[in-house]
Design goal:
The chain has helices at about 25-40, 50-100, 135-140, 145-155, 165-175, 180-205, and strands at about 125, 130. It is an all-alpha fold and about 200 residues long.
Length: about 200
């Protein structure tokens, strides 16, 4: 029997279900089963009267498939909205906690999601996971690319400052560290660099 045109090209199969299957897994499996049924329907040479009867029988199936697809789309949108709300709640709670722990030298910072809902700790960037920003020391130890990536995550659509200390200070503020504390952390870092440079100059003399 010839292969129906709908199946003569690679037919998209649903991904393997989770264990146990979710509602989306069941809906996609049902949709795939109906699509296969429709692909084979009408391939035989039916009597003239059969086409109308078949269309009458399959019509509701087509409607069911469209309804299931719409339901899947709506469920995915609801899941994304729920994840975004959860990330927004986590952002508020984590920033409030980080405000209290100040430098994070006694109690580590909590993770603050980016604006788009992404949790950045361990996020793969240039084949390397981003560091967990548990203290001001960790933020100050970021390399240039990591510093830029964190800044872009917390300030999407904003031009990235060239000065790394400025970027990292803004990142500390974004995760809840008071602006004054963040400023002190990098002023101290600047003094250290000045002292190091002065010692180097003395050695050269």
């Amino acid at each position: 029997m010839p292969v129906p045109p709908a199946l003569s090209r690679p037919h998209r199969r649903p991904p393997n279900p989770q264990n146990p299957p979710t509602d989306i897994d069941l809906a996609e499996a049902t949709s795939f089963e109906m699509a296969c049924t429709l692909a084979f329907a009408g391939q035989e040479a039916p009597p003239p009267w059969f086409a109308h009867a078949l269309e009458h029988a399959i019509g509701p199936l087509r409607n069911d498939i469209m309804s299931i697809r719409n339901d899947i789309t709506n469920m995915q949108a609801d899941i994304q909205a729920s994840q975004q709300r959860q990330a927004d709640s986590q952002r508020c709670a984590a920033r409030a906690y980080n405000w209290q722990v100040q430098l994070g030298d006694r109690s580590p910072f909590e993770e603050v999601p980016w604006r788009n809902g992404t949790y950045p700790w361990g996020f793969m960037f240039h084949n390397q996971p981003l560091p967990e920003l548990t203290s001001t020391e960790v933020v100050r130890a970021l390399d240039d690319q990591q510093s830029q990536q964190y800044y872009q995550g917390y300030y999407p659509g904003v031009n990235v400052p060239e000065n790394r200390n400025e970027r990292d200070k803004a990142t500390l503020i974004a995760i809840g560290v008071p602006a004054m504390v963040a400023g002190i952390a990098f002023e101290r870092d600047g003094r250290r660099e000045t002292e190091k440079q002065g010692a180097t100059d003395d050695e050269r003399r």
